[in-house]
Amino acid sequence: MTKNPTISKSPLRRLFEYADRYRLQIWQASICSILNKIFDLAPPVLIGAAVDVVVNEQDSFIAGWGIENVQSQLIVLSIISGIIWGLESLFEYIYKLLWRNLAQTIQHELRLDAYRHLQNLELSYFEERSTGSLMSILNDDINQLERFLDVGANEILQVVTTILIVGGGFFIISPEVAWLAMLPMPFIVGGSILFQKRLAPRYAEVREKVGFLNGQLSNNLTGITTIKSFTAEEYEAERIGKQSQGYRLANRRAIAFSAAFIPLIRFLIFFGFTATLIVGGLQTIEGRLAVGSYSVLVFITQRLLWPLTRLGETFDQYQRAMASTNRVMNLLDTPIATHPGNIALNSQEVRGEIDIKNITFSYNPQMPVIKNLSLYIPAGDTIAIVGATGSGKSTLVKLLLRLYEIQSGTILIDGIELQQIKLEDLRKAIGLVSQDVFLFHGTVAENIAYGTFDASFDEIVSAAKVAEADGFINSFPLGYDTIVGERGQKLSGGQRQRIAIARAVLKNPPILILDEATSAVDNETEAAIQRSLEYITQNRTTIAIAHRLSTIRNADCIYVMEDGQLVEWGRHEELLEKQGVYNGLWRVQSGLRLSQ
């Protein structure tokens, strides 16, 4: 198996490649971080200069600028201090503004790109993963990345700047003291790298555990009615408790390791500070080092070594962010298997002729669901497909919509091969009314207009009337502005079904697919839906997948599927006369006994 070269890259490199479009903003923010740290490191130098003025007076370093009066030297020093403090504050404001806005921008763009990519993946991708796990990537992981960009990137830049500037200053002032003060640094940096490598798998486990937890929470909230009806609240609370405990233990393992870092680093910092204090002090007593320079070294040692204690926290943020980056980038790197197509299709000009030739499809290679099936549907005809559960009826619908790709054979619409038609144009030409109606949280009007977003209110009402939904909609206190709730939970099954039909009416597609559109409603609602369907199926190609045979008896042709193949076809009366599978189904549904 060929290894994906993108996935083999480090997560940081993948992040930089993604953020390449923001290169200028990154450079601006980085420069401001560095300048802020340079001015932040100036106070120890100013303290040394002040000590130099007080001790050496007319022989001080500032006196060499031609300012011999001690008071004037201190005033000049104060003015310089004010300028430095002002510039430090200015660059701190700018770098925070730039980094935080950059973090928000990348967070926004990355979430949007990941979501758009996710929408384009084939249906099987979603069937193999939990909603909660995908939500964890789109929400938690991208937020984790934003937190690192907000704070961590600046921390790393400032630590590196501190090491370079302070280290350079040490060697200029006193090379002997510099070697001793810098001696702990390789151990600190080496320990940080080792710490990072050991921490990485721990945070990868944390991100995995939070994905499992989110998946279980999402699943339970979606199925809250089932949980309540089976009084399974305590059982589910225990399951959530186990997932949450797994997440807590994964975090605890990561925390136990990361918490030990700073105390260990403190001992190394203490060695560097003590070396500066003793060796520098002895050199000053011996006259080899100026008092002002010694003051600078003592103060600046803290500035050099103490920020390194934050390396643990910074690496902690870094590893969390890189674990999240890997998950987000792996999602973005997931190849889109569905070919987008290149032939434009104007839905207003589609006649609706469908020609299915020798197609085969299987979810599992060992178990084909559709086997060498051929079916021709003339433009404008209404055909029905019936058969037992698992015979392949709904799969055929998914293949027509290219939610899955056929493995062999061809499907033509108006003589054009399905895979060559632009995916968006293909789906615009097909209207689907499914048994499992999904309504979005929003108003009735918004749900009817879903997919036809530019529809006027009058067009929405007209579609609702055709679907015989206008009556019950107007019975609501807020009418078409009524909120339907998540998944339409405030409406009955029949009401949701009629809103779905109104949605299809408004879309006005040349091809209409009815997938068990009346299977879950009462007789009265079924009669109302049937009247709507008789109207909207006129002058368009209609494919009705049906369980209730009474709803499709007037179809131009009825096809009977069994084990992924068509075994019978004809009009209702013709099929009854054949005394085959359809006749048996009809006799069972109509209450007649099969002859012994």
TrEMBL record:
A GO molecular function annotation here is: ABC-type oligopeptide transporter activity
Q: Where in or outside the cell is it found?
A: Cell membrane
Q: What is its main location?
A: membrane
Q: How does it sit in the membrane?
A: Multi-pass membrane protein
The EC number(s) given in the record are: 3.6.3.-
Chain ranges passing through the membrane: 156-173, 179-195, 254-282
One matching Pfam family, short form? Answer: ABC_tran
Domain called ABC transmembrane type-1: residue spans: 27-320
What residues does the ABC transporter domain cover? 354-588
Alphabetical UniProt keywords: ATP-binding, Hydrolase, Membrane, Nucleotide-binding, Transmembrane, Transmembrane helix, Transport
PROSITE patterns recorded: ABC_TM1F, ABC_TRANSPORTER_1, ABC_TRANSPORTER_2
Q: Which domain of life is it from?
A: Bacteria
This entry carries the following GO cellular component terms, namely: plasma membrane
Q: What is this protein called?
A: ABC transporter, transmembrane regionlipid transport protein, flippase (ABC superfamily, membrane (N-terminal), atp_bind (C-terminal))
Protein's gene: msbA
